Fold Alpha/beta hydrolase.
Amino acid sequence: MAMIDANGLAVHVERMPARTTAGTAPPPTVVLIHGMLIDSLVSYYFTLAPRFAAAGLDVVMYDLRGQGHSQRPPDGYRLEDYLDDLEALLDRLDPPGPVHLVGNSYGGTIAFGLAARHPGRVASVSLIESEPPTGAWSRKMAANLARGAEELARDGLFEELTGKHGKHVTKRIRSAARLLHTTTMARDVPASRVLDEDGIRAVGCPVLALYGAESELAVQEGWLRSLLPHCRTVVVPDQEHWVLVGATELTGDLILDWIRTHTPAPAAGDVIR
C-alpha cells in the first residue's frame, strides 16, 4: 500500500505495472476511478485491473478522498476538490503522456470533469454507468445524498444489515455513514460547478459510455452521443447500475479495445497485447 501526498491530502494509491519487456518504450497509463460512498479501489482489483496490466497497460488505482484508506477531511467534497486531487496525483506520478481515464459511477463524473478542465492530459475517457456533471446531475445528487444520510441514521440499521449481509458489508456501509454524517459531502457535491451542453461539447477526447439496459442512466446514451463528436455508447442487456460487476468480461473487452484504438502506434517492441 502506498500513501502519496496529493493536494495536501494523504491518498492511497495502488499500481499494477504493465507486463512488458525491459528496454521497451513506456506503456500507456490507465487510471481507474471508483464510485462514491461504499466503493474503493478494491473493486478494480477483482475486475479490470489485472487484465489491463496483463494487456500491457500501466494501471493506477486510488481511493477517493474520504474513502478506502485515503484521508477523510471534514470538508472539501465538491467535484473541483476531487479534480484537484487527481491533477495533483498525476503531477506526482508523472506518467509519460496523456492518460486513459476509466470511471465507474461518480468516478466517471470525475474523469469527464478532468477531460473538460485539462484536455491535454487525457487520451480517452471510459464511463461505466456515469454521466457528466450537469445541473440535472447536481439536483439528483442532492436528493440522493440527503436520502442516504437519513437512511443511514436509522435506528437498528447496522444490526439489520449484519444479520442479512454479514459484518464485511456492514463495515463498508458504516464507513459510508461516517462520511455522510461527519463531513460536508452531502452539501458539497451538489454545490459543485457543472457543465452546460457547450461545456460538454468542448470535450474533444474520445469517450466511451457503458450503461445497463435496466438502469435509469441508459436514457442518456443518445443525448451524450449527440453532443460528443468522438463518442461511442453501449447499452448492456439485462444489467442495472452495477455493470462493472455484472458484466465484467464485456466491460473489459470494450474498454481495452477503446484504449487500444485511441493509443498512438507504439514503437517496435512496445505492443499492447
About this structure: The longest helix spans residues 135-151. The radius of gyration is 18 Å. Residues 97 and 121 are 7 Å apart (CA to CA).
